[in-house]
Design brief:
2 domains; alpha/beta; single chain
Length: 359
């Protein structure tokens, strides 16, 4: 049983408490946050608290009003707001100008939200986009927000997954990455039966806990072209991936595990199910896809659902979602950023919290 994130029509008595970080103040994070908050009557759906610097949010609101954007915006004064004093001055920071100051600010926003969630003040964190390069020049050396979230929550077992609901067919796309932000040359050495067991267990648990899927069908990608073609194009599949899959089928008899699926064909049915080009694809597509490295999973996800996909962190004690896009410094302040993914991230956070509480 899948759930719907059409929470505008969900009158559940539970109002999830969302901590919403603004992301890098020089990027489109504040803009998509404002647009997303204006898109719905969130007060009837969730208790939303913003983490950031109010002066930067006000600056973004002014830029939006002065731009060609004509959509709805929220009233700023009533917003629940946790004011975070920037570690470095933002006075000389303009939209579209990332710096050590903006990196330090976005890091501080997220760290404060994590502390609030760990203290039980929030059910979910929805994160605005940050720039890893700005974090680094500010002295924070993390591959991304996911790793800081896991560290703050004290989790050593976590995974990055992406979900999206097709506007064409209503089908749910779910993809989890076995490895994330590492160079491609390091992927074969990073992959192992132990790592894939951890990621698969997290995926199965999330499908049950967050989506109500007790007997899911999961496709597992191969690593090499044609999944190695019997060892002719790489031996990872023959040497350990196929034996590992056989072991996992015994460990999880309630799960249909298919693979290793050749990476160039694994995404055909999801694409057909997403766009509705093949009626049988909706029944034949899998409930989730386990990709072995970043681009193997995210190129097809972004081709299908760039403006709707939601980044989720699986394995945390609280729900975490984020829009599946970056800071887009080149368009910050121009009023043209698409807030669809931020709205979807808030929708998914609300729906998953309700699913976990309601069962």
């Amino acid at each position: 049983m899948a759930f719907s994130t059409d929470v505008a029509f969900d009158r559940s008595s539970l109002r999830p408490r969302l901590a919403l970080t603004l992301g890098d103040p020089a990027g489109i994070g504040p803009e998509v946050v404002l647009k997303a908050l204006g898109a719905r009557d969130w007060a009837a759906i969730a208790d939303v608290t913003l983490f950031g610097t109010r002066s930067q949010l006000n600056q973004t609101a002014i830029a939006l009003v002065q731009s060609s954007y004509s959509g709805p915006l929220p009233a700023l004064d009533p917003l629940n707001f946790v004011e975070i004093s920037p570690p470095l001055s933002l006075e000389d920071t303009g939209l579209g100008q990332p710096s050590a100051a903006t990196g330090a600010a976005s890091f501080a926003y997220l760290k404060a939200a994590i502390e609030g969630a760990i203290a039980g003040q929030y059910d979910a964190i929805v994160t605005g986009p940050i720039a890893k390069s700005a974090w680094k020049v500010a002295g924070h050396h993390y591959p991304g927000q996911t790793e800081l979230l896991a560290e703050g929550a004290g989790c050593d077992r976590f995974a990055m997954a992406f979900v999206a609901q097709s506007p064409h067919t209503g089908w749910w796309l779910r993809a989890l990455l076995a490895t994330t932000h590492i160079p491609l040359g390091q992927v074969p050495d990073a992959l192992s039966p132990a790592l894939l067991t951890q990621k698969l267990d997290l995926l199965i648990h999330s499908l049950k806990q967050d989506f109500g899927l007790t007997q899911p069908r999961i496709a597992v990608a191969g690593l090499n072209p044609h999944s190695g073609e019997g060892g002719q194009l790489g031996r990872e599949e023959v040497d350990w991936l196929i034996p590992w899959l056989d072991q996992q089928r015994q460990r999880h008899p309630q799960v249909q595990l298919d693979g290793p699926v050749p990476p160039d064909t694994m995404w055909v049915r999801p694409g057909q199910a997403w766009f509705g080009t093949n009626g049988s694809a909706l029944e034949m597509a899998h409930d989730a896809y386990l990709a072995l490295y970043h681009d193997q999973g995210l190129i097809p996800v972004k081709l299908m659902a760039f403006d709707r996909a939601v980044n989720t962190t699986v394995g945390l004690p609280f729900v975490r979602t984020s829009p599946d896009h970056g800071t887009a410094f080149d368009i910050a302040g121009k009023g043209i950023a698409d807030a669809s993914s931020m709205v979807a991230a808030m929708d998914v956070a609300v729906a998953v919290v309700r699913k976990r509480v309601g069962g």
